[in-house]
Amino acid sequence: MDTTRILDGKALAKTVQSRLRSQIEAALPQRNRPPGLAVIRVGDDPASAVYVRNKERACERVGIASFGQHFPATATAAEISAKIQELNDDERVDGILLQLPLPAHLDAVALLLQLDPDKDADGLHPINLGRLTRGEAGLRSCTPAGVMEVLKAYNIDPSGKNAVVVGRSILVGKPMALMLLEANATVTVAHSRTQNLADVVAAADIIVAAVGRPEMITADMVKPGAVVIDVGINRVGDGAGGYKLVGDVAFEEVFEKAAWITPVPGGIGPMTVAMLLKNTVEAYLR
Ligand code: NDP
Fold first, then answer.
1. Do 32-116 and 142-269 come out as alike in CATH topology?
2. Which atom in ligand 1 lies closest to the alpha carbon of residue 213?
3. What is residue 3's predicted lDDT score, i.e. its pLDDT?
4. pTM here?
């Protein structure tokens, strides 16, 4: 009999959102305004359009005011900078998010640096990544923070466990490794140059896959009883002319061996949005 359990990020994200709604309602009488999140989107990347719409809807559900700004793909760095400055100074705005990817002529790192670190809702400003590295309070990057929130909600304590993070991006893998380290896991970070990835992953009590390669983590790589967190979101053909979303983990077969596993969709994706809202509310309450 398999005993694997699903880590239900979608349900947990709803719980987090209702907690945030209550916090906002409690704070409103003193603050006289709701929290505000400004999303800057540049160009017409279709996936970004969907993500931004989802974020704005989630804001509406919890009572966060949205200050969206959509620039054409031809927008200059000076125009985006001016907007960032305006939002940094706008007292109605607690969180600012620069939706990535940006068109190729814009330098995302240079623009991110201009955000007020205390309004950096995505937690990607070097100051916030530095605070994470030092173990200091600060706005945490949303996807790895979402993973930690899932582990906490299901009473999975990383302390003393072997955690293997596959992927080392600044968006997911690196901050994920630091957060697991902060939670006292023994952390290994694997990447495209890692030798014998299967052996490295097989030693893990907790696996976090953040690669972007459909179903690359297979059952033979997973220790029985491991906790498997699938961050990957990959669009693949559904065999009927359409497409479906799959993670970096071969869900069906890994389900047979893991103790806990996140589904795709419905796992870490909704938690990422919930953590964006949480960062905004934290900045508002501070
Ligand atoms: P990146 O492309 O920035 O990073 C991918 C990482 O995977 C790199 O560190 C790369 O190594 C590593 N990698 C590539 N191929 C291999 C391989 N064969 N074996 C081991 N490691 C490999 O991606 P992101 O971190 O931005 O995103 C990863 C995935 O997570 C994507 O599917 C993305 O869509 C998804 N994602 C999901 C989110 C959510 O809300 N659930 C949020 C953000 C991302 P190297 O550094 O050596 O190149």
1. yes
2. 32
3. 65
4. 0.97
Query: Is the beta carbon of 172 within 6 A of some atom in ligand 1?
Result: yes
Sign of the C-alpha dihedral, residues 27, 30, 34, 35?
negative
| Topology at the third CATH level for domain 32-116 | Rossmann fold (3.40.50)
CATH of 142-269, one of 3.40.50.1820, 3.40.50.720, 1.10.760.10, 3.40.50.1110: 3.40.50.720
What is the interface pTM, i.e. ipTM, of the complex?
A: 0.99
The answer to whether 207 is annotated as binding is no
**CB 70, CB 283: distance < 8 Å:** no
Q: Does 217 count as an annotated binding residue?
A: no
Residue 272 tokens, joined: 């990422």
165 — phi, psi (to 5°)?
A: -100, 120
- HSE-up of 190 (CA within 13 Å, CB side)? 22
Q: What residue segments make up the domains of the chain, in order of their start? A: 32-116, 142-269
The pLDDT confidence band at residue 235, using thresholds 50, 70 and 90, is very high
